[in-house]
Predict the 3D structure of the following.
Amino acid sequence: MKRLFLSIFFISLFCSSFAQMAKSQIIYNQPEDRIIFSKYVVYIQNKTNLPTDQIIIETAKFFLDVPYVANTLEIEPEGLVVNLRELDCTTFLETIYALSMTAKSQDLTFDNFCNKLRWLRYREGSINDYTDRLHYTSDWIDQNQEKGIVKSMAQSAGGEPLNLNLYIMSSNTDRYKQLKGKADLIQKVKEKEMEINARKHFYIPTDKIDQNAGLIKSGDMVGFVTTIPGIDISHVGIIYKDGDKLTFIHASSSKKKVIINQEPLSTFVKGTGRNTGIVLARAQF
């Protein structure tokens, strides 16, 4: 009887673990995404020995003119969304970094790319529910720094302390279908916001961007610090230095596609009317 009980216990444990693993392995993608990935492999396979910053820029340029489409990740149940056909600013950044990590590893398989993207997008690289996704950019930088994927650069590039008061998600749960009516998830979001707020953060004020341009490098992740209450970053992109011009590549909501921004970085920040500076993170892979 004892042996039978142990057998049932281990079978139950195995089934539970398998179910959890299967849940975390949900991948949403279309056949066209794999076709685009295959084209990228052909494009990048002879460039995998380039320095990381150059691989990032080459990868970003591969996606120029791809349409801007928001909210492509909002599919239930929560799973890894791979969409190379349509990008917003965040999915552009994550896709470029995950593909660049894949290229740098020289394991140019779709499965490896998916693993890199999941590791980058989710707090511990695993997907249990909506709260595992790194929704706030400041948390994205912190968590991916802990993983060794990026290094926060704002403080060393002339930055100043940035005090955060994140609450937009927990205070507007009706706007998030994954949170609506789910008290347990809302509580997890609140706790995470408080945790992020308590950390030390730095940013480069707008008037210090140009004077610290020499410390900013092509391929760096850039995020735009916003004055919108309850949130930290309003937009993200990838730094691009074109000669003496410091600008960035991003999925532009106004241009409705991925572009190399034509105006300098500091001009863009000043022109938005709602940004006070930038945060930076540098790839470590």
About this structure: Helices lie at 2-24, 31-44, 52-62, 89-105, 110-121, 137-146, 183-198, 265-272.
